[in-house]
Specification:
about 325 residues; alpha/beta; six-stranded parallel beta sheet; three-stranded mixed beta sheet; 11 helices; globular
Length: about 325
Amino acid sequence: MGDTRDRLGFIGTGNMGFPMAARLLKAGFDVAVYNRTRSKAEPLTEYGATVVDHVADLADRDIVFTMVADPATLLTVTTGPDGVLSAPGKAPKILIDSSTVDTETSSLVRAKAATTGTELLAAPVSGNGKVVKAGRLSVAVSGNRAAFDRALPYLEALGEGVTYVGEGEVARTVKIAHNVLLGVVTQALAEITVLAEKGGIERRAFLDFINNSVMGSVFTKYKTPAFVNLDFKPTFTPPLLRKDLDLGLAAGRELNVPMPVTAATREVVQALIGRGHKTDDFATLLLLTAEGAGIELTPDPAPVDDGLKPTKPA
């Protein structure tokens, strides 16, 4: 087990970082936070957070989490001249990055961390802000095993599933594989839902059956409100899904793994983007499938359970 006296830092309190940091604070850990827009981090003081004005102010923390928007930002807050790994004479013992970045960026951060005696844990996550609040976040972690063991109590505070997957950057590959499955499963769910609807079956009834069958899952339950109510507030946009499908296909070419279903799904997502679905949720794959079937879907306003009842307190 890790040393629960570790002082934690958290960089990035956006849609994902805020509820993640909040769970650490509610679990009783000492957490200092930084966000580029300070006002977005200030509400965490209600749970006992210390808000700092500069990333480098977190360099004396034992373990620092990062959850930022893109590779460029991750490099800025870690390896940049004012980054947490660039403060003179001090650096965290462990850096845990949960951002979605490529293996090349992760390797650059790992190399810089090694020069300061810091262990990098790549820790991409499965879920969104609502999933974090429900305690259902899953984390895949790669890096030094001893560092993982020390950090485990903090990772476990974030959700219900923490899996050590190996050394180096392999957790980044796990995240890409996860997002490929996300796209393929959603397209398959869209197709069978439209098939049922055109066959005269209410979407709500069909999806209730699927969710209670052996084919149901946390994910199918979570997407059911979007499919039934046609509420497509974004959790993950089609352009982001296309990017990850492209990364998955590139990995398949590199490793000589045939991925015909992924390739077909990628083209459907491209067609979705071509029809203007760039900023709504990728569940709009349902609308594209219905269009191809010659039917127009209407919202069913009935309340639908998304399956995200909290599983455990922070």
